[in-house]
Design brief:
alpha/beta, 19 helices, five-stranded parallel sheet, about 450 residues
Amino acid sequence: MKPKVLVIDDEQAICTSLSFALENDYQVLTTTDPEKGLMIMDQSRVDIILLDLRIGSCNGLEVLQKIKQKDATVTVIIMTAYATIETSIEAIKKGAYYYIEKPINIEELSLLLLRASEFLFMSQQVETLNEELELRRNSENFLGNSKAMKQVFSMIERIKDIDSSVLITGESGSGKELVAKRIHNTGKRKNGPLEILNCAAIPEALLESELFGYEKGAFTGATQSKEGKWVAANGGTLFLDEISEMPLTLQAKLLRVIQEREVTPLGSNRKINLDVRIISAANKNIEQMITEGTFREDLYFRLNVIPIRTPPLRERMEDLPLLIDYFLKKYCREMNKEKKSLSTSARRLLLNYQYPGNVRELGNIIEYAVALSIHQEIDKDDLPHYVQEQKKTAFTCSDNNDDIIHIPLGLPMKEIEKRVIGETLRYYGNHRQKTAQILQISERSLRDKIKQYEIEKV
């Protein structure tokens, strides 16, 4: 579609000549009355305005100001027979794109309009990209129309612009990190950094240096200084995922930083002031850990100012169709495949599955199906075998002896834990991530238990 140009000039001859000169490349509207020009802007979208600096008794700069008040994005080119540096600078200060002197050279005007059109197109592209980026930041695979999810969205909306600490609890794969990202990306700190530290994914020996940073020579191997997550998150948000996996010794240091709002890198005496919002997440019962002496109560109270619980997928099954369609589109796009659909039998299996791994597991299932299916319609045979078989977890009653663990009375707790972990691993074919999800522990905890109990692959 041709860009729409509005000419506002008190000389009808100029309006007519410009209309003829530009009509091949632009939709041209003309008027000799500035007020009518403003009315035209109300009635239809105008891309570029050619505005005379002196329109009878009207001052073109005042008209320019009114135009920009109506639409700040419209491109205005000033036409003047009295061009001076002062008036030109004043016009550009008030929002004009450029100016052109009278009598108007049509070739010069055509070039100026071409540049203005390119500028307009680029501005629109940037605006579109910004909107898409904002949409992605705020809602990527964080969807739901269920009552449970509406409560989560409502809570996020109420707390996004305050600095109180947030503790997000919920099962693995239920979207705790997405909640943290949404709080950051929609709140007042969205232009600041969001730093994420998974306390279970980093070996205990490296966790302290990763969090606090260190100076060159602070320890063997510290060949250069490193900025820790605390400092990197300054002005933004620090998200501590799986905070329940943080060692007790490090919990004390974390508490001190939260209280004092300053951090000292390892090997340094220099204190750095902090402006950081803390969001943490846990899939364990921290109150029980406090009773057991594995988590500090004072740190828990500091972190749990505002609690948010992410519901497991089984508590919001009405969101399944929405999530299934989202993941189908997502993975077809990422794998450069034509849009795929689900057969009735495949969709029925997905709607009946219980998803112990929650939304993360659903995404993995759809990704598997999109990657391996050879037809446009995904059938039940394209789904992972455990979804096809609809096996129940190792803790439900079943006629199949493979699904039951027999625990004799009086068996020590350590032996019970060892047997449950070993049998669950066997049941899921030594798939550690799946086993950790079912047992609701972190993968690091599972690795430690396997090593502690010397559980061998079966």
